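Lab notebook page, bench 4
Experiment: in silico fold of construct C2
Operator: M.H.
Input chain length: 312 residues
Purpose: comparison with the prior construct
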Amino acid sequence: MQIISKLHSWLYKEQSLLGIDVGKNFIRIVELSKNDNTLCLVNCAKIPIEGKITDSHTVATIRTWLDHNAKSKNTATAVAAIHALFKKQHLANHLTSRELKNFISFNLSQAMNLLPRQISYDYKMDIDNQGALSLATVALEKKHIDFFLALGNSLNLRIKIVDLDIYALARAICYNYAGQQPMLVVNIEEHRILYIVLDDSQILLWAEETIDMNNLTSDFFMPLIIAKIKEWRSKIAINQLILGGNYQAISAIAKLIEAWQGTIVEDWRPLSLAIANPLGTLNHGTTMDKNCKTNIFSEMLIAFGLALRVNG
């Protein structure tokens, strides 16, 4: 039976993908199974963090859920983009691999005031129509990576990728809205609002705003969202607003916006509205946790975007 099971799994190329989003007050988990290009939601969970995520009782609670509900150990997680350094520069000459590595390490070390061994980074090179080289670099202090590797070890997980939260959020949104014109994504959590502007899957702008987790009302959020729309619409022709995160907050905001459409400032009139729910479009597994309810799906965007990264 063991050989048949392995052969069956290989023939159908089924994969199990686990994304874990560690927030300030909750850890959010999404597990997907992948059969060729078809995704199925196996399970999801929103688990409270009491004290610190590294406290023994919190680790025990999360590990118990994983042991009983998760099929995969391969995991992707994310660091908040506010901890990252984004740098873009032009290169005058083509460099060898060694020269490029030394160039990046030196520049990041200078910019971050850290030793090269204390920095983790990724980079991308582009060549324009005139043959000019540009280098885009994203860097983190290595302690952020080490934290998640240690957490994964305590949870008996294999951390395959440590991503940035804005990249995971963009990936989740593009699962349903790929190729669309510039859109503003507003993801509301208990302690922050994460804003990104996407244009055909590319992040053009992003920002994070700290909020009071005890004030999740539309009266609190609307001035913040209106200010961001006005600010960024002066730079980019944003055509769509997509809401994600806390279900209570975004439902109230959506109702208020729908009532206001065409009646308030001119900036709102051509702006279409949607609530992101990529998990709701998937087939659901038969062994899903009973607490994995549809009204938390909108809160799982970053975890979903991470799950899509596990196997590259």
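Observations: DSSP finds eight helices and 14 strands in the chain. Helices lie at 2-12, 56-69, 97-112, 142-154, 165-177, 218-233, 247-260, 301-307.
Next step: discuss at group meeting.
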